[in-house]
From TrEMBL:
Matches recorded under PANTHER family: BNR/ASP-BOX REPEAT FAMILY PROTEIN, BNR_ASP-BOX REPEAT FAMILY PROTEIN
Record-linked SUPFAM superfamilies: Sialidases (SSF50939)
Protein name: Sialidase domain-containing protein
Taxonomy, superkingdom: Bacteria
Length: 387
């Protein structure tokens, strides 16, 4: 028998429930009393703990926005209370990612930008990238270090380690210009000495392509999937030389609504992408579009390196409204982060209920691919907890 209670209606207390209809485990993480939560990230620790972080405060871009974290300790069925990770009272700290460093610490990389100025809503052009480390599994954090001080540097995906040991860290470069967000290009920080030094490689003709998610298809052959500011499609670029050069971005079949995406290569070899399957096909070329609707959350699987996605499932249906007349009755479920743990389980987190908090799901690749549970064996959450 499962040790997880059946789903009665989630609340933001961190309790993990079994959703029999969807065949997943799910939880609403504690909010810590902050009115908004956005841009979650996760990592599996060596002992099997799951650590999650996100930015919280009153409103994105405000000085009280900072990074918080919560943990699901191995064998437990409830996420821990929220604790502060960062707290610079003069900066808006956003878009965290988590990385297991060679020094045995968890590295939290995030952006820190100036507070909103009177009459200027977007201060991303002032951002720098900082790093804080934890040597005790996220229970406490050291002082921040500024890693990339160049103004306008933004990030989302964690540092990726390639098969030759090279590190690659996706950035996009924000400017204060009339084109604003639509003109921001993608660049990659590359390190061959475990982060002691970095060089910057730009992606050609990538203006308006951000949130690059890098995946290594085979040694030295990389692919990056990107959010598109024109809100039409998720775009794709390739590198055949370990990230030294990149192709111009081209659209994939997957729609994009100018919101965050998350991609991962699974143990099976398939690529999985979490995203909102909506777009604004009538958006003006070269201009940022904001369709508004960030619901549902889907996970799509590719068996050809991200060229096609024949297997797609809505993992979050929101309030379930469909159609032009009532689709705005759905709340927003956005900025997914997707990862696979050592036991093969998939873990998905995203901002839920219009940034009221963070929702967490755990499921199998087969739960997306659609194979019947009668042939795959019953989903056993208790076994999923064991390491």
């Amino acid at each position: 028998m499962s040790k997880f209670p059946k789903l009665p209606g989630l609340s933001f207390d961190g309790t993990v429930y079994e959703d029999e209809e969807m065949g997943v485990l799910e939880a609403l993480l504690p909010t810590g009393g902050f009115p908004t939560a956005h841009a979650p990230a996760m990592v599996e620790l060596p002992n099997g703990d799951l650590l999650a972080c996100w930015f919280a405060g009153t409103y994105e871009g405000s000085a009280d926005i900072h990074i918080v974290c919560s943990a699901l300790r191995n064998g437990e069925t409830k996420w821990s209370a929220v604790t502060d990770l960062s707290r610079d009272p003069k900066k808006s700290e956003q878009n965290p990612s988590l990385f297991l460093g060679p020094d045995g610490a968890v590295w939290a990389m995030y952006t820190a930008q100036d507070d909103r100025e009177s009459g200027k809503d977007n201060m991303q052009f002032t951002a720098e990238v900082r790093c804080q480390k934890s040597f005790d599994g996220g229970r406490s954090w050291g002082e921040y270090e500024t890693v990339f001080p160049e103004p306008g540097t933004f990030c989302r995906q964690p540092i990726q380690i390639l098969s030759n040991g090279r590190w690659i860290f996706s950035n996009w470069l924000c400017t204060d210009s009339p084109d604003g967000l639509a003109g921001d290009p993608t660049g990659f920080r590359i390190s061959d000495d475990q982060g002691k030094s970095w060089k910057l490689v730009m992606m050609p003709k990538s203006n308006g392509h951000v949130h690059a998610n890098v995946i290594e298809l085979s040694p030295g052959h990389l692919v990056a999937f990107m959010r598109h500011r024109e809100a039409k499609r998720i775009h794709r670029s390739e590198s055949f030389d370990w990230g030294e050069s990149w192709s111009e971005p081209v659209p994939t079949p997957l729609p994009n609504n100018n919101s965050g995406i998350s991609a991962v290569k699974m143990k099976s070899g398939r690529i999985a992408i979490a995203y909102n399957p909506t777009s604004a096909p009538e958006s003006q070329s070269g201009k940022a579009a904001w369709p508004g609707l960030r619901c549902p959350v889907a996970v799509a699987l590719s068996e050809d390196g991200g060229k096609t996605f024949p297997l797609i499932r809505w993992m979050e249906r929101g309030e379930g409204f469909i159609g032009d007349e009532n689709r705005t009755n759905n709340r927003q479920y956005e900025y997914p982060y997707l990862m696979q743990s050592k036991d093969g389980m998939l873990h998905l987190a995203y901002a839920a209920r219009t940034r009221e908090g963070i929702k967490y799901l755990r499921f199998r690749e087969e739960d997306v691919a659609g194979k019947k549970r009668e042939t795959m064996g019953l989903y056993n959450p208790t076994a999923a907890q064991s390491r």
